Amino acid sequence: MKKKTAFSLMALTVALTTVLSACGSNDGASKPGNTPSNTNTSGETKQVTLRFFSNLPDRKSGQGLAEQTVIDNYVKENPNVKIDVEALAEEPFKNKLKAYMASNEPIDITMVHNGAELDTLVAAGYVTELNPKDYEGEKYNFLPGVFTGFTFNDKIYGLPRNSDYSVIYYNKALFQDNGIKVPTTVDELMAAAKAFQEKKIEPISMNGKDLWNIGAMFQNLHQRLSGEQTSLKEAAKGQRKFADDPYVIEAAALLQQMVKDGIYNKAYMTMDYGASQNLFTQGKAAMWYMGSWEAGMASNESLPQSFRDNLGVIRFPVVNDGKGGINDLIAWNGGGYSLVEASKNKEEAKKFFDFMMSADQWAKVAWDTGAAVPAQKYELTGKETEVQKELANILLEATSTTGILLIDASTASFKDAAQTALGKLAIGNITPEEFAAELDKAASKK
Amino acid sequence: MHKVLSDRMAIFIFVFPGLAFFILTFVAPIILSGYYSLTNTIAPGTSVDMVGLSNFKELLLHDERFWLSLRNALLLGLGFVLIQHPICIFFAIMLDRIGGKAEKWFRTIFFIPCVISVVVISRMWLSLLDPTFGLLNKVLGFLGLESLQHVWLGDSSTALGSLLSILIWSGFGWGLLFYYAGVKGIPEELYEAARLDGATGIKLHWRITVPLLSPVITVQVTLAMITALKQMETVFLTTNGGPGDSTQFLAVYLYNQAFSASNYGYANAISIMFIIVCLLVTFLLNRIMKNKNLDY
Questions:
Q1: Apex CA A386: angle with CA A398 and CA A272, to 5°?
Q2: How many domains in chain B?
Q3: Cβ separation of B132 and A8 shorter than 8 Å?
Q4: What DSSP designation does A40 have?
Q5: Residue A14 pLDDT > 80, yes or no?
Q6: Which segments in chain B show pLDDT lower than 70?
Q7: What dihedral angle (degrees, nearest 10) is formed by the CA atoms of A244, A415, A290, A278?
Q8: What is the DSSP string of A367-412?
Q9: Does any domain span residue B8?
């Protein structure tokens, strides 16, 4: 009896395993794009479907349009290739990419964020190492130093798509109508904020829920005080102490004071990226502290004409007696693209990837459509919007750049801890000294 | 029939699918989670190093955020039990007393929040509580109560309270439904008898309705505590634990450690503690509220 039971159990297990594994392989094969499939009618080239994962769900304007244009260009030249785009908004995108990584999903090309986020993908072996030699020279025309956030242990795992730098977009009409001076110093900025509050207009719209942008502003203040751009990065890597840097304390105290004085919109702590942008584009906030990748606002026809006409951009103001100048730029290369190691069409994927990253594709299209400021050299067309011209000038006249944001300069674990500390600092739950100590604690954890 | 049920093989075949499902979806993940909790892996698919119990040591002895999020979850549970449930019982009795068409109408109205998607509820409350454009502050301003205006969800002193109110509001319908069913099950004769003995108004319900609801209350309190511990979506969609951790809840903290901070091993340690806490709370509650079987 016992023997019989044991045998039946075994038989059942075997049967079940077979059934389950059959399900598995069926499932894999039925997904489009996983397999390079049959040859086409001419019999020369293989039909290939590439899976492209993007953080730009709006395919009709700005960067999403530029990205889609490049994809369309490639498909036109290579009719045997089909590119399936999956695009999600920023935060869901990040989450899903982690899920793809966990299950080693065979997508082909993905958008990636530099530094801490890419660090995890590299550790998991999900993205493909690139040969920097392939991307030298005129075909690509990358600006110097743009691979910083994509380099791990001297190997690069992705290519940047933009030159990102923090600026203040502002609504000219709101400044003019209320007789408020466009600020060039932090004191003027605070005075302007006060004047706007009295007029019941929100001063700076801030996506505080995401926290990273508060980090960028902290870094901006630190730069304006200290006049240099390397100490924060070194401290994040544990090479020096945040607490030993008097400018960290000073910048933290200044940021805390500014928030306390109401420089941000009141609901900043519950506002995500989109909500903060809406507040600004609807003319309810006078300024938006954001990156150069929003250049496309000026030519985005879904925004009201009156807003676009009044859109201006300025450099982050200086601090009186600070060592940093107005042309020192918090600049980095945040977004980029990587090839995926799990891809089943590696060769075709790389061909498309190289095409997309060549200077006459992404860089040119992104600039020409006014979507972003590329990380590659580009030609002026003469059709640029005022905002674009000003943004180009800001980068051209930059006397120093950052390379990577403080929060991205180490691991994802550091990023999370640093962002939490920034949140607490902003709302005044911790003192600037405690803030520095929390950053040091985060940096010491490896 | 008897022959079939005494055959071990037959029993096995009938039980196996359910058992296999249970093992694959409950037991195996917990065991896997237990394994990962002893490692310092940063994400699924990355290298795995055993670090023994150091994750748990860190969690229990040095991690303020964990204790804070546990405290918040327990506070929410208390909020459910002490604020939401008395209101639910009160409204259940009221509904029962109103009777007729109105009863049906109000029953439906009270249940509406439970059928609205969590995303919609979160967005709606974000708008209602918006400090500048929100209805609440506007009404306060209109009534001349500017001093009471707050940055409800963005200020660490009011964020937790505001969030608790949202959660208590949105879960109100479920509580009401259970208590209402309980109240409906109490025979009318008992009230008549009590009235003859001179019990009226609040006393009548305090002496008759509430004691007879005790089986429902026992189940509801346990469910409320577990719901509170598991709370995730509304927090994630409104404050994401902020400002500055003041609305950090266990499940949100766990999620962020696993997927934002890339502390996968550590997050698994949190999830193991999470299971232990849930079991402990359930056990204690069952102990405290020993189910007295009531016959009537």
A1: 75
A2: 1
A3: no
A4: -
A5: no
A6: 1-2, 5, 291-296
A7: -140
A8: HHTTS--BSB-----S---HHHHHHHHHHHT-SB--BS-GGGSS-H
A9: no
pLDDT higher than 80, residue A9: no
User: Could you tell me if B59 and B268 are in contact, meaning their C-beta atoms sit under 8 angstroms apart?
Assistant: no
Domains belonging to chain A, first-starting first, are 48-163+333-379 (3.40.190.10), 164-331+402-444 (3.40.190.10)
- Model pLDDT, residue A296: 87
- For residue A8, what pLDDT is reported? 52
Beta-carbon separation of B261 and A413 below 8 A: yes
CB neighbour list of residue B197: distance below 8 Å, 6 or more residues apart: none
Asked if A423's CB is within 8 angstroms of B243's CB, the reply is: yes
Q: What is the predicted pLDDT for the residue at A446?
A: 60
Residue with tokens 């509170």: B228
Residues A271/A208, Cβ–Cβ less than 8 Å: yes
Residue in the block written with tokens 């093989």: B9
Chain B contact for A429, CB < 8 A? yes
Instruction: Give the helix, strand, coil percentages of chain B, each rounded to 5.
Output: 75, 0, 25
Query: Which chain A residues have a beta carbon less than 8 Å from that of B233?
Result: none
What's the domain range around B212?
Answer: 62-288
pLDDT given for residue B151 in this prediction: 87
CA distance A240 to A268: 32
In a domain, B32, yes or no: no
Task: Report the DSSP beta bridge partners of residue A312.
Answer: A170
Decide if B19 is inside a domain: no
Q: Tell me the angle at which helices A246-260 and A412-427 cross, rounded to the nearest 10 degrees.
A: 50
User: How many CA atoms does the CB half-sphere of A333 hold within 13 Å?
Assistant: 24
The shortest CB-CB distance from A267 to any of B44, B47, B151 is to: B151
* Residue B155 domain-assigned (yes or no): yes
CATH of the domain at B174: 1.10.3720.10
Asked if the Cβ–Cβ distance from A420 to B246 is below 8 Å, we say no
* 8 Å CB contact between B180 and B95: yes
Question: Can you spell out the DSSP letters for A196-230?
Answer: HHHTT-EEEE--GGG-HHHHHHHHHHHHHHH--SS
Question: Over 90: is that where the pLDDT of A46 sits?
Answer: no
- A371: nearest Cα among A307, A301, A294: A294
Residue B160: Cβ-neighbour burial (10 angstroms; 0-12, 13-18, 19+): buried
- Rounded to a whole number of angstroms, the CA Rg of chain A reads 25
ipTM summary value: 0.81
Q: Is the pTM of this model over 0.90?
A: no
Residues contacting residue A38 through CB under 8 Å, at least 6 positions apart: A46, A47
Q: Which two tokens stand for residue A230?
A: 């390397």
Lowest mean pLDDT among A26-40, A56-70, A74-88, A424-438: A26-40
The CA distance from B217 to B89, in Å, is 9
> A272: phi > 0 → left, psi -120 to 50 → alpha, else beta; which?
beta
CA A194 vs. chain centroid, Å, equals 31
